[in-house]
Specification:
Elements: H1 6-9, E1 29-30, H2 42-52, H3 64-74, E2 81-84, H4 87-98, E3 104-109, H5 114-121, E4 125-130, H6 139-144, E5 150-156, H7 168-177, E6 183-187, H8 202-208, E7 212-217, E8 230-233, H9 236-245, H10 253-264, H11 266-289, E9 301-304, H12 310-319, E10 322-323, E11 325-327, E12 331-335, H13 339-350
Parallel strand pairs: 1-10, 3-4, 3-5, 5-6, 6-7
Antiparallel strand pairs: 2-8, 7-8, 9-12, 11-12
Bound molecules: pyridoxal-5'-phosphate.
Pyridoxal-5'-phosphate (PLP) is lined by residues 34, 86-88, 112, 156, 160, 187, 189, 217, 219-220, 225, 230.
């Protein structure tokens, strides 16, 4: 018997999401991982195919063409961009580099499931600060949670799984009070889906405060979840740490080529993002009309805080061919898909009649 050390033993085993539905012969919609429902653009597939022609070689870790294209797009110095094999790997680099055994990492809860995992595997302590009653980050409570052992704070905006955003001015006020030796990570995985002008603008906060880094990913809006491409925008002091903890060769040349082609095709990709945004707004409005209480989402998913009825709603959705992401006892996250998928979700939810549902007001 090979024993896990205590800090690994305490981590619950990972349960992968469902991907098949028994006893349903209609169309199945996988809305459990906030993926882009549309297949990659032909120009991106071409770039990937070309890059695959030299995959006997290790990747060029500097990915100069990709980082130059990104730097132009974001108007940040090229050297401020540190790549990761998905932004989960970028987040892991940050935790490993800056939080050791006696250190604390603060984040809201519920938020992105990877945070506690990354913090605990690094041997650090996860400090979870409950969301407010409206499913928003509680910035005063997060400030109050800071101790001499705090090293990193994650701020997920829009928040996965609730879809709510942190207010830009509120974050600036928060940053003025956070000691400058604490690293604040603004995880903007869903930034392309934001159309609320009061929401955090990560790059602006990055430019204003030296202890802020921003996480972005190509998995969601750009539709490259399967290729693993993300990055941190960070200044030299942070980058030196990330360079030590990055998984060597995590970003392949194939992924970097897809990144370059995606940036070149951004107008075309934006049309899909705009469609998903308008679908999100349509779904939210229709759910409100049928009595569901959905927190305002700025992402490509929405949250049903159905509490004790979570498993019942999940079973009901599965019986209609819809695979969502349940968090038993709390609620269900449903990704926005193509219009047919969203219609199927709306029709299934209209026919759900639970008893005294928390989300059905
Ligand atoms: C999906 C997601 C990511 C991105 O993950 P990748 O590793 O880039 O696929 C990062 N942060 C949050 C909050 C997410 O939901």
């Amino acid at each position: 018997m090979i024993e896990q050390p205590d800090h690994i033993k305490s981590i619950p085993a990972y349960k992968p999401g469902r991907s098949t539905v028994e006893g349903w012969d209609g169309p199945v919609f996988k809305l459990s991982s906030n993926e882009n429902p549309y297949p990659p653009l032909p120009s991106v597939v071409d770039a990937v195919t070309r890059a695959a022609g030299h995959m006997q070689r290790y990747p060029n870790m500097a990915a100069p063409e990709f980082r130059a294209a990104l730097a132009r797009r974001l108007d940040v110095p090229e050297e401020d961009i540190a790549l990761g094999g998905g932004s989960v790997e970028s987040a892991a680099q940050i935790v490993r580099a800056f939080a050791g055994h006696d250190d604390e990492v603060i984040f809201a809860w519920r938020s992105f499931e990877a945070y506690p995992l990354l913090v605990k595997t690094a041997g650090a302590t996860a400090v979870e600060v409950p969301l407010t009653a409206t499913e928003h980050h509680d910035l005063p409570a997060m400030l109050a949670a800071i101790t001499p052992r705090t090293r990193v704070i994650f701020m997920c905006t829009p928040n996965n799984p609730t879809g709510t955003v942190v207010d830009h001015e509120e974050l600036r006020e928060f940053m003025r009070q956070v000691p400058s030796h604490i690293l604040v990570v603004v995880d903007e995985a869903y930034t392309h889906f934001v159309n609320d002008s009061t929401a955090v603008r990560g790059l602006e906060v990055y430019r204003e405060f030296e202890n802020v880094v921003v996480l972005h990913t190509f998995s969601k809006a750009y539709g490259l979840a399967g290729l693993r491409l993300g990055y941190t925008i960070a200044r030299a002091d942070v980058r030196q740490g990330l360079a030590k903890t990055a998984m060597p060769f995590a970003v392949t040349d194939v992924a970097a080529a897809a990144g370059v082609a995606s940036l070149a095709a951004e107008d075309e990709l934006q049309k899909r993002v705009d469609l998903l945004i308008s679908e999100r707004d349509r779904v939210e409005a229709e759910l409100a009309l049928s009595g569901w209480n959905v927190p305002p989402s700025q992402a490509n998913f929405f949250w049903l805080a159905v509490g004790a009825q979570t498993d019942a709603v999940q079973e009901h959705l599965l019986r209609h061919g819809i695979i969502a992401r349940p968090f038993t006892g709390e609620g269900i996250r449903v990704s926005i898909g193509e219009p047919e998928a969203n219609d199927a979700v709306l029709s299934a939810l209209r026919s759900f009649h639970g008893s005294d549902s928390a989300a059905l007001s």
